[in-house]
Amino acid sequence: MAKGSAEAPDCGSRREEKGFFTERDRPSGAQQTSAGREDLPDARRSLEARQAELERLAAALRDSEAPHREQALERCQERFDQAPVPLFTLTRSGLIGSANLAGARLLGVARSGLIGLPFSVFLTQDTAPVLAAQLRQDFEERHSFSCEVAIRGNGRPTFPARIDAASATSAECSIAVQDLSAYQAHRAQAFSESRYRQLFESAKDGLLILEAERGIISDVNQAAVLLLGHSREELLGRRLYEIGFFSGPGSEQEVLAELDRRGELRYQALPLCTRDGRHLFVDFVGCSYQVEGIRVIQCDLRDVTSRKRAEEALAKSEEQWRTIVHNINEYVYSVRFENGVASSIYHSPKCLEITGYTPEEYYRDPLLWFAMIHDEDRALVNEFLGHILAGKSHPPIRHRIRHKDGSERWLLNNCAVQRLEGEEAGIARLDGFIMDITELKLAEDNIFFLAHHDPLTRLPNRSTLYARIDQVISVAQKANRSMALLFLDIDGFKQINDTLGHDVGDRLLQSVAQRLTECTRPCDIVSRLGGDEFVIVLWDCGVEETTSVAEQIIAGFSLEGSSAVINASIGVSLYPQDGRDYLTLLKNADLAMYQAKKAGGKGFHFYTKRLNELAHERFTIETDLRRALERGEFVLYYQPKVNIVTGEFSGMEALIRWQHPVRGLVAPESFIGIAEESGLLTPISKWIIDSVCRQLKSWRDQGIQASSAINLSASFFQHADFEATIEKALLQTGIPPESLELELTEATIMSDPQQVLGSMAAMKALGLQLSIDDFGIGYSSLSYLKKLPVDKLKIDQSFIRNIAKDTDNMAVVRAVLNIGRSMQLKVIAEGVENASQLAWLQAEGGEEAQGFYFSRPLPAQGMTALLKRGKRAFAASVSTH
Ligand SMILES: Nc1nc2c(ncn2[C@@H]2O[C@H](COP(=O)(O)O[C@H]3[C@@H](O)[C@H](n4cnc5c(=O)[nH]c(N)nc54)O[C@@H]3COP(=O)(O)O)[C@@H](O)[C@H]2O)c(=O)[nH]1
Question: Residue 513 in contact with residue 459, Cβ under 8 Å?
Fold first, then answer.
């Protein structure tokens, strides 16, 4: 070292005082480190070898002679100079005491220029203090140390270096400097490779590295092994087509050529069957690059089977949804809201049929929908949308739109809102469906119409009348107005229906409805209650106006295709005097109509209080009648029929009387009609038949061979029990059928000619006598009369009453007598009250008569007495003149 010191530039001693650090600066506890010993063995060994050499030389110097000492020093100096490791000696101040050749090369400064320079000038600012601290500690504690610094070599960039210092002597310490540039580069590369391998192996995607030249797999990661189901060994050296990619070597070649040309290739959802039979879909990304001059292909395989399956499921569900939406009858739509602006995102094809506009037209104009809403329904739709957009639920609404073709359509509109949550809370979408309910609405309207109207005449029906008239009455009450209720019933409608057929009856009802509508104003109500009953409500009409309307109505209805003139009867009640509610007005108008009917029809009658009294009376009679039969209050009177030629009994007529507990003996005219209308005449008729037969039997039992006529009403003649009742009575009493005579009026026969004719034939077949009562006042034609199985005509008493004075009556009676003769029918004149009537009849050739002149109707007991007078009881009566 002395030699080195001698060779060192004199600047060394010059800079001693301004050295690296001074005694004062020397640290007290610097640590020795052995870090990097194994990393840098050469430098350390070299340094340790020099240290050992120096120690050996020192020992030799102590023990040897001078010549040997010189030689040793030279050898030592040479080894120091030629050592491959950059070596330096540093003074306590950190000045360079000596440097070997490698050291001078490292720092890029001639050795002579280095001596005396602080070593720190070659260090970066941040690492210089590191070395200074270590040196202080080294000189203090005489320990070796190692540290890493950054050297700013002359003419080369800063490079990392490691300094190994031997234990310092009192004056100097030796350091070996190792350039770490190459080492660190190597270490970086090793780190990079390890990191790459780690990344390669831990990648989730399967990675295959191919030698591009031969197309064979040269590396695979674990993910690829798991994905493909092949072991790593099976994969290495194989080609892509051999592990299931691409259809074969040709196809693979094409793919690799394309990859080569473009540098990168991507395939999405390639189907792949793995070695263990799994069917997968993988996204394939191939890219080609050079590694150390060799071209490789990296294949990235990502298992997208779940995604693919989900996509397929989604596509399938979308397809199903589309199929459903395209085939349902509803028009489905979806509108998106973005920043408060609506835009159409879906309109199913059905929109064209329902609205006339194509989906494209909706996409172009988001407000098209609103434009077609019917003006009257716009408020309803706005309210509906307001509810929906506010997030409230609302049932579907029905509204109208104007179809593109101009027609009006009824729609059922239902929709729901899809909302965004969180910060961007608000409406995202409006989804809805629309159904064309035009036909349904029409059907509903029709059903509603039919529920409230009569289908035949299309007039309001009973329930509608009821609802409307209540409103009319309420308005009339508030406005202090009058109104009239007209109850109309077609005269003889049943006969028209029965004789001319129901089609004709229907047409008649329709023409009546039309006529009533024509005769009234729009503010009036015309309705059909049912059957041939109509109700007309005339608003703000008194007696005068109502009379005028009623006269127009009853002027007569002509029936299309028929010459018959049809008449009607009308009853009128007035609000408020005849009633303040519908039912009272209707009841009173009905009473008045009944009165009009009783007056012969073809007329109208205003309701009067008297009608009500009569109705009340009638009601009382009806109530009493219901109890009369069971209380045995009916009795039979008998009026004789007389042969006016011989004066002999020719028969008798049974006539009913009601022995009323309060009213006394009530004549049949006061109750027969009521009994018939209330359905009580059937049991009463059965009682009459039974009683007459029993009386005849009683007389027979007394040796009197009598016969009797019975009056039969139309209702009982048509009753299902009629024939059986007669047969049973004959059977039970055993009287001969020919002792019983049935009197039917022309009206009875005409009420249902077919059925009555059948019953008459049956009675005739049984052996009963049949006669037409009140003959002459009806409308029997001769041709019709010929068909009837009757034995006798009974001239109505109205013709006999004024026979002496009334030439018309004479003519009628003569005519009936002639008819009888020509048709070989017996003729009896009833209502003979005096001798002149009898004489006239006798003069005209009449054979039989009945009347007060001979006898009033007698109770059975009286008749028994009369009968006992013998055959010629009336001989004196017939020969008085
Ligand atoms: N269905 C039934 N109808 C019956 C029955 N009994 C009677 N009647 C019908 O009631 C009407 C009135 O009958 P009545 O009060 O009994 O009157 C009868 C005679 O009393 C009356 N008559 C007879 N002779 C004269 C006379 O000279 N002058 C006169 N003013 N009246 C007279 O005529 C009635 C009998 O008429 P008719 O039946 O047409 O022969 C009457 O229509 C009865 O038919 C019954 O049981 N069932």
Answer: yes
